[in-house]
Amino acid sequence: MTGRNLLEYDPQTVTASEALNRAPFVLLSHGTEPDPVLNYGNNAALALWEMSWEEFTSTPSRLTAEAALQSQREQLLEDTQRQGYSDGYYGIRISKSGIRFEIQNVLLWNIVDDAGEFRGQAAVFTKWERK
Asked: Does 16-130 carry CATH code 2.60.40.1120?
């Protein structure tokens, strides 16, 4: 746990899932498959990667990075799995159409269920820059 809230919202006017989906930051996650597949992306994530929900949630998360940078990304994921979270990551990613962009000041954390079982990882960031 990072001890941070992702956003504040009024539960009388919007559900948590609606608020996260419409949030001004990018939020995404992947599961625990041998080649983890993205299983959530809010509207900002879908727009940044230029994908529909169906495309996004059937994409192995490694494909969000260029092939040459996938080992760096894999090391980050492994370090995060051991430590619980990582804060301040910067890295280059690539959209469906091939647009390169740098994600900045990324918070990455492990997703665990109520029994403490590892269920995947999620990331959030507010800044990115096209390269």
From this structure: no
The reported pTM is 0.89
Structure confidence by residue, pLDDT tens digits, 8-62: 888 888 998 999 999 999 999 999 999 999 999 999 999 999 999 999 999 999 9
The DSSP output letter for 37 is B
Q: How far apart are CA 30 and CA 67, in angstroms?
A: 18
DSSP 36: P
Closest CA to 108 of 95, 96, 131, 91: 91
Q: How many CA atoms lie within 13 A of 12 on its CB side?
A: 0
Domain boundaries of the chain, sorted by first residue:
16-130
